[in-house]
Amino acid sequence: MKLLPDAWIYAMSSENRIKHQRDLSAWSEKIRRDTTPLPGSIPYENCRRVAVAGKYDHWTVERFLTARFPHVDAYRWKEVCDSSRLRLRGRILSFKERLRAGDIVSHVIPNTTEPEVNNDIRIIYEDSHLVVIDKPAPLPVHPSGRFNKNTLIAFLNTSRPDLKVRVVHRLDRDTTGVIIFAKTKEATSDLGRQFFHNSVSKTYLARVTNIPETKRFSCSREISSAVSNSGRRKIVAGGLCATTDFECLQVYDDNTALIKAVPITGRTNQIRLHLESLGHPIVGDEVFNGVCGFRRPLDTVPIPLLLHAWSVRFVHPHTAEHSEFKAESPAWAAAEAGSLEFA
Fold it and tell me: Is residue 172 among the annotated active site residues?
């Protein structure tokens, strides 16, 4: 693990530096202990809240929900409403009732249990401004969809209720590796600017199908700004500009290859989409897998997504020093018998 943190770590004595690492290991262990069993595995009443923005003022509940969540059919929302599970300020909503800007609609889901996740979280680094974590998979970063309690943010809050971490970038639920959280508003703003201007350098490892013809290659294909009805983004003309550089590191007997990916821009699902569009879908990717309509049988064990956020380099928001953090390489990225470095 390569580590170039801010100056106060360097100023530590050897003894205090060792203690700091022990404290991080103890926090990692506390997270695993506090989230076993997984909080989302215990049935609970889940209340999902959605704010009514100004553009939806005076819209009916039906029109608002189908516009706000286009991937959910209107008849499903009607079923939810008919079951008295849509509420506003504690009272039950009717489907044709009109909403006002600023209203908070609550969707109550009784007896909720969430899918299992991996709570083997490892804290790489912490100071008074940020926290750097090696995220396992599957584990979503923040609440969304079927996940509320079984998320990285929730796990951090469970282990350290005093800690207020702020998201400055994200990793997909099934992507492993290094992720940064800010601890102050100032750090959030500074890191947010760095990510917005693509001045943060990130490197990923991916195991892909079909061995590339060249060692180094790039992809500059535009990506849709919003998800389609299928719930995924697409390569589209006139979309958001996106560029990724790739390098083939290793080839394997099973017609897969180890790829180093460096996203020049930071679009959602960029690496997965670009590799799929080039004919090299990532092993275990059931969303962007190059096979239209593919879904694994329900009774089979899913293959993990072999995509890993390997390193991140940025300017520390407080010291202005260049800092780099690197997560350990996953087992699937190791050389195997019969594998070769790409010539």
Answer: yes
Answer yes or no: are the C-beta atoms of 252 and 320 closer than 8 Å. Answer: no
pLDDT in tens, 1-48: 334 444 445 455 566 667 778 889 999 999 999 999 999 999 999 999
Fold of 44-110: 3.10.290
Catalytic residue among 6, 127, 134, 172: 172
Three-state SS across 121-178? CEEEEECCCEEEEEECCCCCCCCECCECCCCHHHHHHHHCCCCCCEECCCCCCCCEEE
Question: What is the DSSP code (8-state) at residue 286?
Answer: S
Residue written as tokens 């389609």? 228
Map out the domains of the chain as residue ranges.
7-37+116-341, 44-110
Domain 7-37+116-341 fold is Pseudouridine synthase (3.30.2350)
pLDDT one-digit tens code per residue, 275-317: 999 999 999 998 877 543 334 444 445 678 999 999 999 999 9
State if pTM tops 0.70. Answer: yes
Q: Where are the alpha helices (H) located in the chain, listed in sequence order?
A: 7-10, 14-34, 61-68, 74-82, 152-159, 185-196, 270-277
